[in-house]
Design brief:
Number of strands: 3
Strand content: 5-15%
Structural class: alpha+beta
Distance between the termini: 20 Å
Shape: elongated
Helix content: 25-40%
């Protein structure tokens, strides 16, 4: 959100002159101008795994990592 404000202050048009994607998107990112393209972290899956690791006495085996999902909005200049 700060980069969007900085781009606006510098007279840069998002996404025409600056394409922007954010990591760890918050719900607020859907309401910025333009709406911010984000990666949404799988917080529920991450929290469940953390709890399992804390309370489970079984040996820790590798688990597949939970993947973030891309939410395409106007700030990247992509269609979506």
């Amino acid at each position: 959100v700060g980069v969007l404000a900085g781009a606006d202050a510098a007279g840069l048009s998002v996404p025409d002159q600056l394409a922007l994607i954010s990591l760890d998107g918050t719900p607020d990112s859907a309401y910025t101008a333009p709406a911010l393209t984000v990666t949404e972290q799988p917080l529920r899956a991450m929290a469940e795994r953390a709890v399992r690791l804390l309370i489970d006495d079984a040996p820790r085996s590798p688990e597949p990592h939970a993947a973030a999902s891309l939410v395409v909005r106007r700030s990247c200049g992509c269609s979506g």
